[in-house]
Specification:
Helix 3 crosses helix 11 and helix 10 crosses helix 11. The protein has 15 helices and ten strands. Strands 2-1-3-10-4 form a five-stranded mixed beta sheet, with helices on both faces. Strands 7-6-8-5-9 form a five-stranded mixed beta sheet, with no helix packed on it. By secondary structure, the protein is an alpha/beta fold. Helix 7 links the parallel strand 6 and strand 7. It is about 35% helix and about 10% strand.
Length: about 375
């Protein structure tokens, strides 16, 4: 199984007034790794009641179609950490955006196991889930798990390799110790191979989530996530060099949303407007990061580090905007990119064979939520 994100994981628009503004006045708590997460339905109205804002972003007919979908469970990638495709869904719930499109959504915290998330969606226990990236979608298909990929926020690998500044060429790592979370991430392995590193010469060891093993000299290189460990080390006063796979031509992704195929076929407007609300929250949280993170903090409970999670979101949001293919809207998923990522996984032995990529995706949903200039259509036309 591919490694999952650790405990931490611009188009601009102003916040909605009124109820949304009130929703932002939340008390910050403190770190997803020690929080006791709870499922929440946020701003949704109790059964049989209708709020003043319910359906404010859709027509009456579309509202009725979305309500017919019934309760929707969305599973996060890892608890309520403020990563792309997690924070935007949590914020869309807390800010009432799902209410605006007449969806009754319960946000359920995930454990960090992408395969488990995919299985929940395939079984219909959940209708929507966040996976770590397109590679997780491909591995799910390889294991016979039937889900459909409808969106991807980040179009570069989120994994990185960290060294101290005295390493100026990756070949210097030959014969040294490399720390990882249980498996060398395929994009990092491909990067090292592309740089001419003899992988057999590396002593690979499994380490925990404390990145201080690098400055303490217990390892000479350390895998991590671009939005997490490098920020943690720099905040502690340790300068590190990050080696990013895309700089070596290695494809990758993060923040992939999957849906249950039968649910999507029966309730297409619900899937569309779930993504519409989440992408609207991406825009909002791009301007109001701390307010959005405080929504996640309230859901997570005590121990949630707001400042660190703001850094996580800001880093990943920047990567989302910078990596979105030119001329495409934020959230687009394409067969070409999924295929390229799949080939890397096959070459690295993480995937037995490349599945039928076209059968795994609905690439039409996200473009259909935007106008010709790539602007998200909110409210829905």
């Amino acid at each position: 199984m591919a490694p999952t994100r650790p405990p931490h994981r611009r188009v601009r628009r102003a916040l909605l007034a009124g109820a949304a503004g009130a929703a932002l006045a939340l008390t910050s708590c403190a770190d997803a790794s020690t929080a006791a997460p709870q499922a929440s339905s946020g701003a949704s109205s109790p059964a049989g009641e209708t709020s003043e804002r319910r359906g404010s972003a859709v027509s009456a007919e579309r509202c009725a179609q979305n309500e017919a979908a019934g309760p929707i469970t969305s599973v996060t990638g890892y608890q309520f950490q403020s990563s792309a495709s997690i924070l935007d869904v949590v914020a869309a719930d807390g800010l009432g955006y799902f209410e605006d499109v007449c969806l009754d959504v319960t946000v359920q915290p995930g454990t960090g196991d992408a395969s488990a998330n995919a299985q929940l969606v395939a079984a219909g226990t959940a209708q929507v889930a966040d996976l770590g990236g397109q590679g997780d979608l491909l591995r799910a298909a390889d294991n016979g798990i039937d889900v459909t990929g409808v969106a991807t926020l980040g179009h570069v690998p989120i994994a990185t390799l960290m060294t101290l500044p005295d390493v100026t060429d990756l070949t210097q790592l030959e014969g040294t110790t490399l720390g990882h979370k249980g498996q060398l991430p395929p994009p990092v392995a491909s990067m090292l191979a592309a740089a001419g590193v003899d992988l057999e010469s590396l002593r690979q060891v499994t380490v925990g989530f404390d990145p201080s093993v690098l400055p303490r000299g217990q390892v000479q290189s350390l895998t991590g996530y671009r939005s997490n460990e490098p920020n943690t080390l720099r905040a502690a006063g340790t300068e590190v060099t990050t080696w990013d796979p895309q700089d070596y031509g290695v494809p990758g992704s993060f923040g992939t949303t999957v849906v249950n195929p039968a649910f999507a076929a029966e309730h297409p407007t619900a899937v569309e407007d779930f993504l519409r609300a989440a992408l609207h929250a991406v825009d909002t949280c791009g301007e109001q990061a701390r307010e959005c993170v405080e929504i996640a903090a309230e859901r997570a409970g005590a121990g949630y580090d707001v400042d660190h999670n703001v850094e996580i979101w800001d880093t990943e949001h920047g990567l989302v905007l910078d990596s979105t293919p030119q001329g495409q809207p934020v959230g687009v998923i394409t067969a070409q990119e999924v295929t390229a990522e799949g080939r890397v996984l096959v070459e690295g032995g993480a995937l037995a064979a490349l599945p039928d990529v076209d059968a795994l995706l609905d690439t039409t949903v996200v473009p259909g939520l935007h106008d010709a200039d790539g602007k998200l259509l909110w409210p829905a036309p």
